[in-house]
Amino acid sequence: MKNYLIYYLLITLSIIVNSCSEGFKEEYSKYSLVLKEVTAITTPTTDTTPDYTFSSTESGTITYGGSCSSSTTSAISGNNTITLSSLSDGTYADCTIKVSITVTTNKSVTNLSDSLTITSFTVSSSDDSSSDDSSSDDSSSDTAIAAGHFHSCAILDNGSVKCWGYNNVGQLGIDNTTDMGDNSGEMAVLPVVNLGTGRTATAISLYATQSCALLDNASVKCWGNNQHGRLGLGNTEEMGDESGEMAALTGIDLGTGRTATAIAAGGNHACALLDNASVKCWGRNQNGQLGIGNTELMGNTSNEMGDDLPSIDLGTGRTATAIAAGYFHTCALLDNASVKCWGKNDEGQLGLGTTADMGNQSGEMGDNLPSIDLGTGRTATAIAGRAYGTCALLDNASVKCWGDNNVGQLGIGNTTDMGDNSDEMGDNLPSIDLGTGRTATAIASMRNHTCAILDNASVKCWGENGQGQLGIGNTELMGNTSNEMGDNLPSIDLGTGRTATAIATGYFHSCAALDNGAVKCWGDNAYGQLGIGSKDDMGNQSGEMAALTGIDL
Question: What pTM, to 2 d.p., does this model score?
Answer without folding.
Answer: 0.77
